[in-house]
Amino acid sequence: MENPMLSVLMATYNEPIDYIKASIESIINQTYTNFEFIIIDDSTNPETTETINSYADDKRIIIIRKKSRMGFVGALNEGLKIAKGQFIVRMDGDDISMTDRFEKQLEYLNINKKIDILGGNMLIINESGTVVSQRKYPTRGILLHLNSIFRSPVAHPTVMFRRSILDNNFFYDESFKKAEDTEFWFRLRNNGYVIANLPYNLLSFRISGDLAKKRNVEHFSYNYKARNKNFSWRYCYVDIPSIIATKLYLAIPKNLISLFYSFENKKYSK
Q: What are the backbone dihedrals phi and psi of residue 89, each rounded to the nearest 5 degrees, phi first?
């Protein structure tokens, strides 16, 4: 596409066939259609690769592969380098976007010119696609900042952000193997970019296995590093307690962290 309004970035790595199919189809079936869909594929599994290739007839889809492994963060930056859209959209290869996600986000950003980064709420689904919980984020202002003491201010796979961020040479920091999104949002915050969230579920976020094993010591070490690197006295009421909270996480036994995530992702009821 010559002039897409949106550039959708999906970094993939050996997702199961049914996951990647559901994820890709949730994008190509969006009610808003003026987008390019950049899939940066690091997969070594031939079945995943073949499944992605099966969608190549859709002219909106661009598939990027390299001879050596890019890694998740490197793959995202490769996609950002070729993105043409006025807005950048994030998506993961095992999540499912709501059909009107792009339409809602684009409408909001076109009306609210001062908002640069826009996310939203998520349904939490398990391996079989059953909704088990919901994760909500404050929409904007002080509550959003306070919420970022404990977690990222915006859910990475729900994000749509303005191209001006790229034009000003802001990319993901590839020294962060984990917590790259937290580092990115805090760095953008410090440079005057404004974050907000929609009060709607924008996608279904898939959790496989024990989330505490993924949110391990390495993850929280990078999270601490991200927050420490981007400490700002302007936001000290957030940054000081967030650094302390992350340090405390590192001292909490793994079984208690597993219990916390189990409680957070308890049975969902509408």
A: -120, 135
| Angstrom distances, CA of residue 72 to CA of 78, 181, 238 | 10, 11, 28
Domain chopping of the chain, boundaries = 1-94
What's the rounded Cα separation, in Å, for the pair 19 and 76? 19
Q: Report CA dihedral (255, 261, 264, 267) to the nearest 10 degrees.
A: -90
Angstrom distance (rounded) from CA 187 to CA 221: 17
- Which of 81, 39, 83, 47 is closest to 63 using CA atoms? 39
CA 136 to chain centre: 14
Sequence-ordered alpha helix ranges (H) in 122-203: 141-147, 164-167, 180-190
Angstrom distance (rounded) from CA 233 to CA 236: 5
Q: What is the pLDDT of residues 80-131, one digit of tens each?
A: 999 999 999 999 999 999 999 999 999 999 999 999 999 999 999 999 999 9
Q: For domain 1-94, give the CATH superfamily.
A: Spore Coat Polysaccharide Biosynthesis Protein SpsA; Chain A (3.90.550.10)
Q: pLDDT tens, 20-45?
A: 999 999 999 999 999 999 999 999 99
pTM of structure: 0.90
